[in-house]
Amino acid sequence: MDIRSQISVVFHLDKCIGCHTCSVACKNVWTDRKGAEYMWWNNVETKPGTGYPTQWENQEEYKGGWVKKGKKITLKGAGKLQGFKNIFHNPNLPTIDDYYEPWTYRYEDLFNAPEGDDQPTARPISLLTGKNMEIKAGPNWDDDLGGSPDYARKDPNLKDMAKIEQDALFQVEKMVMFYLPRICNHCLNPSCLAACPSGAIYKRGEDGVVLINQNRCRAWRMCVTACPYKKTYYNWSTGKSEKCILCYPRLETGQAPACMHSCVGRIRYLGVMLYDADRIHEIAAAEESDLVDLQREMILDPFDPRVIEKAQENGVHFSVIEHAQRSPVYRFVKEWKMALPLHPEYRTLPMLFYVPPLVPIMGSSEGDLYDTDSEDLFTTIEKSRLPVQYLASLFTAGNQGQIREVLKKMIAVRLYRREVTVGDIGKEYMEQHLREAGLDEKTAEAIYRLTSLANFEDRFVIPANHREEAIAALDTEFEKKGATGFGFRMKPERGM
């Protein structure tokens, strides 16, 4: 048992209001530089929709992630052979048009325009070439355009739905959307790391954050191809790849990442979890239908004395274990089984999890009418305007049963709180829903409080940094067998 610690994150999609404050905070802190104009390490997408970069979920085009071949997994569009074949021309890379060509405006045309009868305008100019341009796309270009033929109808997650179901989804009276914020998943089995020919990408031993060594990066851009979430970007000015660093300088001083600290909807939770690294390959190579459950199994109980003993033997500081015992992410993912990974079929074992949205919350539908004045205060899963099949395509590799279990729990908690605060549900009816969801009143109350009433310290349980012990353990392991054993690809130089 090789127990390691991993900083992990949960996004509660039922609370996201799509304000993009997280994106702006990240942009101002990390990518407000030449060559990074088009980078959004944190972005918020509207679903159904094509996302950013356009159609990033279409791995037939972008060839990201891992694929299962027999009992093994292999990179879909990168690796030694494929990388060598594409060394001079990589057809699987997103182009600038897939992101958008960044621009500004020629404001001097406004300030210096001579007096006249016409209205002066500021022409858009490219931040890449400095020339006049026609704006065709931008960040969050499809924001709030749920149901539009150009964006929502081209969502790759709709491909397995029957046409009649798709058409019903886009009828005006049934149109639905929700927001999907995305950052780097800091995966346990990162395909970007495996694809890097120069060994520039590594996974930090003390917290599992995936980083790119800017001194080693040689601009092969295989990491851009290999990342199925397209969260690695190429800086055209420096000639280096860049990505979300989970604000590790802030984490090391006990502060929450910029996107999480600024989140208006308080949808974000951060904590540390313990996992068994010996099972990474076994789980990544499992059948698609088992990926979510097996990833949960790999996450270990921080209260188990044997787990604590093995973790300390492997160099995990006891204070990290104590923080794992208070982790809100552990509760959502492992204890309550309410948070799910995004596209587990990519087999990267992402450590960013999502509580799926339950939209709309209230009302019911009869025929073609959606009635919010119905006696059935809360909609049922079957009558929800957001199809279970769509959510399953996003979060469970098509397993609708796992989505239903989560939605049952969310509905049960709402019924419980409605009965507690208003008393118009009926205790017997409420208890029936709790039993069907596998919850009791104590657990429902805990879910409600962490979802709705949690303060800053409850949402962000950040362990103290013990870099000195990680380096000591790393050196010992390196001397033993010439490898770190802590997720690093190479022995790091001291002081880096």
Q: What does this molecule look like?
A:
The protein is α+β, with helices and mostly antiparallel strands and 496 residues long. The chain has a domain at 287-459: Orthogonal Bundle (nitrate reductase domain fold), CATH 1.10.3650. It contains 21 helices and 16 strands. It has helices at residues 21-30, 59-62, 80-85, 96-99, 108-111, 163-169, 191-195, 222-226, 248-251, 258-261, 280-284, 291-298, 305-313, 318-325, 328-335, 388-395, 400-421, 427-436, 441-453, 456-459, 467-481, and strands at residues 3-12, 43-47, 66-69, 72-75, 103-105, 124-126, 178-182, 201-203, 210-212, 232-235, 240-243, 268-276, 340-341, 352-355, 364-366, 369-371. The strands form 7 sheets. The protein has a 4-stranded mixed sheet. The protein has a two-stranded antiparallel ribbon with strand order 2-7. Strands 3-4 form a two-stranded antiparallel sheet. A hairpin with a 4-residue loop joins β10 (232-235) and β11. It starts with a strand and ends in a 15-residue tail after the last helix.
